[in-house]
Amino acid sequence: MRTTVLRGTAIALACAALAVLPAVPAQADAIRAQQWGLEAIHAQQAWHTTKGEGITVAVLDTGVDANNPDLTDQVLPEKDLVGFGAGPGDRSWAQHGTGMASVIAGHGHGAGRDDGVLGVAPAAKILPVRVILEDNDPQRQRARTEKAGALADGIRWAADHGADVINMSLGDDSESAHPEPREDAAIQYALGKGIPVVASAGNGGLKGNHVSYPAAYPGVIAVTAITHPGNRAGFSTRHWYATVSAPGEGIAMANPDNTYYLGWGTSPAAAFVSGAVALIRSAHRDLSPDQIRRLLTSTAQDTPEGGRNDDYGAGLVDPAAAIKAAADLKPTPQKPSPAAYAHRYFGPGPTADDTDATTTGWLPWTAGAAGLVLIAASLVVWRRRSS
């Protein structure tokens, strides 16, 4: 066995969040027995209402194999923002992206579709946006240098081309990780258009636990990983931006060569949550990203003491409970785009309205104080003249 850690191309994405642990190819009909994550998040209960019909999930990744038997007729034409590197049929093409797509929207195959990988939202569509290259792609270093804005461009492209959810099973959690204004602005653009954005919290739990981007940008639904027993995965990054948790160890995924492997990381955890968001959006189409985020946190399972912590966020995602709770919600308009990234926030960050409210809130007090000063000065002048 070997560990493959996929790193991004354009913006020095040290994507430890993309780590997978390939296993000996499994028989397709044995895969379902290994898909413990679906039961853990109560996906089957959610399917009584919807399987993600009418929803498109943009997968910003290494590409997706549209011919994979578990994804046939699910994958829309790909947008390649890298433009070079490995292609279909190469060993270093679309492994990670195909795996994430199968976790989100795999529908299985064979008689009754009883074989292969079943995703969280098996009726959803996948919109592949290639923004990074696989770790073993010989062109990876070139892409890092020449395609520095691929992720930001991919977010905007997806937002303008039909995405209902944006999944980013990637991130930079290196020591030099820092917010990029272009990425932040692109995420706020997507949120302003009513599109929830999901990202991996990072795999740096055992390697410095550095903040990971894009997970740490305001408004992003950042996902940590749990193990089969429900414990925090040791590799999962623990930080203030954690929103919810999802299965991230021993996750069955499809591969472009039509084999399967068991993966680990906050990458598949993010894919689980993107699938959950697709189910919620399918059942309640007009909810805003903020409402969906609040539904995920308010209905999560195994909520930590105090309502959240850095290990699990608000707890294990539960789309069935979220769909049920949403029945009592009235859709609200999208909030204005959050202000530029400046501080750390748990939640969507400051908005233009919040800033205006803060600014106008002190004007009456300032005006009143100035009036009192003028009155006092007038009294002093009057007394001197009288003397």
In short:
The protein is α/β, with parallel strands linked by helices and 387 residues long. The chain has helices at 36-40, 43-46, 95-105, 140-146, 150-160, 181-192, 266-283, 289-298, 319-326, 352-361, 363-386; strands spanning 56-61, 79-80, 107-109, 115-118, 125-130, 165-168, 197-200, 221-226, 242-247, 251-254, 260-263.
Radius of gyration: 23 Å
- Written as H for each helix and E for each strand, in order along the chain, the element string is HHEEHEEEHHEHEEEEEHHHHH
> What structural category characterises the helix and strand content?
alpha/beta
Extended strand count: 11
Looking at the overall shape, the CATH architecture of the largest domain is: 3-Layer(aba) Sandwich
Biggest sheet statistics? 7 strands, parallel
Query: How many structural domains can be distinguished in the coordinates?
Result: 2
CATH topology-level name of the largest domain: Rossmann fold
CATH superfamily of the largest domain: Peptidase S8/S53 domain
By CATH reckoning, the class of the largest domain would read Alpha Beta
Judging from the principal axes of the Cα atoms, what is the shape?
A: globular
Which segments are poorly predicted (pLDDT under 50) over 5 or more consecutive residues? Answer: 1-26, 336-367
DSSP summary: helix tally: 11
Mean pLDDT: 85
Topology at a glance:
Blueprint: H1 36-40, H2 43-46, E1 56-61, E2 79-80, H3 95-105, E3 107-109, E4 115-118, E5 125-130, H4 140-146, H5 150-160, E6 165-168, H6 181-192, E7 197-200, E8 221-226, E9 242-247, E10 251-254, E11 260-263, H7 266-283, H8 289-298, H9 319-326, H10 352-361, H11 363-386
Parallel strand pairs: 1-5, 1-6, 2-5, 6-7, 7-8, 8-9
Antiparallel strand pairs: 3-4, 10-11
